[in-house]
Each structure stands twice: as structure tokens, then as C-alpha cells.
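Notebook B, p. 112. Complex prediction, attempt 2.
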Amino acid sequence: MKDEFICEENCPHMATVQKVKLEDMTRSSQKQLAEMFKLFSDETRLRIICSLLNTELCVCDLCALLELTQSNVSHQLQLLRNSKLVKYRKEGKQVYYSLEDEHVESIIKMALAHILEEKMK
Amino acid sequence: MKDEFICEENCPHMATVQKVKLEDMTRSSQKQLAEMFKLFSDETRLRIICSLLNTELCVCDLCALLELTQSNVSHQLQLLRNSKLVKYRKEGKQVYYSLEDEHVESIIKMALAHILEEKMK
DNA sequence: TCCTCACATGATTATTTGTTCATATATTCA
DNA sequence: TGAATATATGAACAAATAATCATGTGAGGA
């Protein structure tokens, strides 16, 4: 009873996850997957992604928050934009970035759970 | 009713996932996360991981199945071993590899769900 | 119109990474 | 013991990548 709620709440798109049959994975979907994981595999990029988990931020917010150069942040955001992982919204001179969808959160949570359990061993 | 079962069945370690608070993520756990994603970010390594999703395999099985050189496979397995993502078991001359835990499957499923939904747009 | 601010982008460089080749180790079998 | 097989590993190299520097673009204010 409680479980259903928790599941819905914290693990969105479960419906799609149910449909996923890992046995049917094609070579090309593996390639896509690898490309996606590559975006998460750089610490700087991951920090940017994590900063956007709760809120949208403009480029200079990210620079200040993460102590990175503007050029560096913009380059990383370009990669994330190209892969449709983040979206943006212009407002005057500023550009506000936010995450494209909630999968990102789910994926990070799942991976973090792995690390947590690993530690407890 | 059905939902609970499906959730338990396909998304193990939900209990840990519930505990994960993304806001509390430290710099060092972000680094660990990035390192983990890096292992999934190479197509060859991901193919090896995917091959091990259902069954354990020895090195030469992997070479044959994925059409890779033995040296290449062994090097990649070394990385996966060092990060405790796979475990192994020696039997005579052969060494059988398998996945260390079920998070791997959950993470891949979640990421695949993202790609699937992306396509449907 | 000119200046400033926020951001994007091209070029360059240092570093990391994936693969290959050559060789080492360890187990089985004759 | 010696040969054959399965796997591991070190060195070398090419390719990919992240960060930096310099510069470009475009909006807003004086």
C-alpha cells in the first residue's frame, strides 16, 4: 500500500522501465546508452547536472556555484544541450538551464544507491 | 496490487533508493558516481556488461560473442573487476565472470527507458 | 551609437583512454 | 616434464576529451 506511493513518487516512468527487455537490446541502442553514460561520466558535467536537479540556473550561477570558468561551463552545457539532456530559456542577457526530464534524477538515484550499498558491505 | 509486485520484481533495492537524498550529495560521492558512469560509457565495456546480465561467461565466450580480441576483453574486465562491478570464479583454465550486483541492471534499465521515451517524442 | 555584460564558440594543448602487440602466468593433458 | 590452452598484463600508440585562451555575438543601458 505504502510501497505503491513511494514507487510512483521516487521512480517516475516505471511504466517504461517495465517494458524494457534487456535481452532485446540492439547494438545501436547499446551505443546510444554508452553515449548517454558518457555525459554523466565527467565530474564537472555531473556537478552541473546535479546542480540542476532541483532548480533552473543561469550560466553565471553555475560558474559561481561550482567555481568554474564561464567558458568551461558553456562548453559542457553545449554537450548536454546537443544530447537533449538539458533545455534552456533566454531571459534578457541571461540563459536559464534546466533538466530535460526526470529520468536523469532516477538514473542518478539508482547509481547512488549502488555506491551506498557498496559502502555498507 | 500488481504494481507492488512489478516494482519489487524489476527494480531491486528500492529501499536504498528511497533513502537517497540528492541534496546531500557530497563532492566525493559525485566523483565516485562519475567514475562509475565512466565504466558504462564505453561501448565495448557496456557490451560486456550487457552480455553478463543474464548469465556468467568465461573470457573466451565473451571474445567469441562480441568479436573482440582476448587482450581487449581482459583489459576491460580488469577495469570492471577493480571497480567491483563484476566478480569472477576460476574453473580449471577458464575464468567465469558475472555481475557483482543487481544495481547494474536497474541502472541500465532506467537509462534505456530514457532513450525509449526520447524516441517516442 | 557605444559600451558593458552574459553567454557561445573556435583553436590549441595537455591528459586520458581504448586498442594492439608482445609476453608472462597458470592449468591441463600427454 | 613439456606442449597447448586460457587468461593476465606491460608497453606503446593513436584517438578522444577536458580545460583554457582568445574572440565572437547579441541584448540592454547610458
